[in-house]
Design brief:
With 184 residues, the protein is α/β, with parallel strands linked by helices. The protein has five helices and eight strands. The mean pLDDT is 92.
Amino acid sequence: MEGTVKSKILDADGIRRALSRIAHEIVEKNKGTDKLVLVGIRRRGVPLAERIQQYIKEFEGAELPLGILDITLYRDDLSTIDVQPVVHETDVPVSIEGKTVILIDDVLYTGRTARAALDATMDLGRPERIQLAVLVDRGHRELPIRADFVGKNLPTSRREIVAVRLLEVDSEEDVLLLEREDHR
């Protein structure tokens, strides 16, 4: 981790409750599951999307299509992250034409990841609408983007880091608030 732990924001049970609530809100806002496609933004958005898919299946009996979106080449900071960025596969197994695409990510911060995901999604087709679901909204938007579904609103300072750790990726399950360490 890139900082000192200030506090634990969500434990495994808190993450479960937040994702279950988001799943219910998605179904309610869209008046059911018709024409919905879940798309996880690589990396931690993918296991979150898989969990939301499972919750919807449990309480609605509907198995929604699930896609994986890699936004690496759509980032506006591509030249600053690596000389040879690692590009992973985008895999959206159904047409998104005329569908409601629910983009799912772990943290909404500046809005730049969401913007890149919007661009990548539009390259796949023309959905009827796109909605955004995030586990944590920490504020500090640089673009006019907001989430439709939020697990936890968490006001932060720019010196703080929100670290989402998921079993599938990190072998741990929680959301931590970290204080950025100065590297002077």
